[in-house]
């Protein structure tokens, strides 16, 4: 029996042949997407319902504002988009059920301890004006061990267009920003002016303000005023009051 390290399903149908790494898949396949993973020895999937809602909202935003980012094919008529999107969750759940079973069986057969990384992508179906294709990519994933020293951050810009939607073309676009990252930096925080944070180039970040935790949403501007930054839950740094340049405040 041949071990498969990655799986790809389209509309619930497992694909044969070599499956590319998820980064290559996203770079070559335009569409709205979301990524999550399993937890607890692959026994549960983190926030799957929330990811599906986010994916559905991304498709809606792109269909209205930038249909070209939903892949090739004719642009759906406005009165058809809602019908197409309404079937998205059902198709994604069907693909997940089949793909999870395949990956978990492979994991058990070879005695692996890895978690499963799950990426769902939605794009317009080629040659059809009303349908969407739902892709599901599953791979094995070893969660990194958090370092006690925290994350090393750098600030870059500008922010993403249509930041409320998550689309795969960003994986290709952000390569230019990644070239700006200092050698010791582990993540870039996006900013349009150096004073306000938008999001991480790869991760989201948390802001702890006066004892409460707020998860940064895309396109959310965070003003500096007695806050703590916690990036990927690595470390917290207190910033001074005022609107100083983030480059001088975000450090390891």
From TrEMBL:
Signal peptide: none annotated. InterPro entries: Aminotrans_IV, Aminotransferase-like, BCAT-like_C. GO terms for molecular function: catalytic activity. Coiled coil: none annotated. Pfam families: Aminotran_4 (PF01063). This is Uncharacterized protein. The lineage of its organism: Eukaryota, Viridiplantae, Streptophyta, Embryophyta, Tracheophyta.
